[in-house]
Write a structure and sequence with these properties.
mainly alpha; 86% helix
Length: 148
């Protein structure tokens, strides 16, 4: 029972609402099933990258700049991402809100003293539950034509 009391409920609810919104928008676009699988895999990678220790992330980032070709590739990728920020600002804002909610939950879990594995499992469960809930709610609303 102490685990439930230690959970940062406010930030988890915010995370859940963020992913409900993502599931709703994605479901409204009516993508094929492999897109749903790719989004779920991307969520796992994103949560894993945020819940891993910062020293491990620093080690990986140092490997990116070990050669000139890698440094050039990272620079070109960064420039392309900077272009995408301006070209698709609405998409950037949506992704930024998701990242901000994930970082808030991660900070709250770190403050509460959770281990990385616990944080990864709980954040992943809430993220995927929100995604599924958003898709489910959108399908129900669309089926009964509540918003039209």
């Amino acid at each position: 029972m102490s685990l439930l009391k230690k959970l940062p409920w406010l930030s988890l609810i915010l995370l859940l609402l963020t992913f409900i919104s993502l599931g709703w928008v994605l479901s409204a676009a009516n993508p094929p099933y492999f897109i749903w699988v790719l989004v779920a895999i991307a969520i796992f990678f994103l949560v894993a990258s945020l819940t891993s220790p910062l020293t491990r992330i620093a080690d990986y980032s140092l490997n990116l700049f070990t050669s000139n070709l890698r440094s050039f590739s990272v620079t070109v990728l960064a420039a392309f991402l900077f272009f995408l920020i301006f070209a698709r600002f609405r998409l950037f804002l949506d992704i930024f809100v998701i990242l901000a909610a994930l970082m808030l939950v991660r900070i709250d879990f770190q403050t509460a003293g959770f281990r990385e594995v616990q944080a990864f499992c709980i954040i992943s469960i809430f993220s995927l539950t929100g995604l599924v809930m958003g898709a489910f709610i959108e399908r129900i609303m669309f089926q009964y034509n509540v918003y039209s």
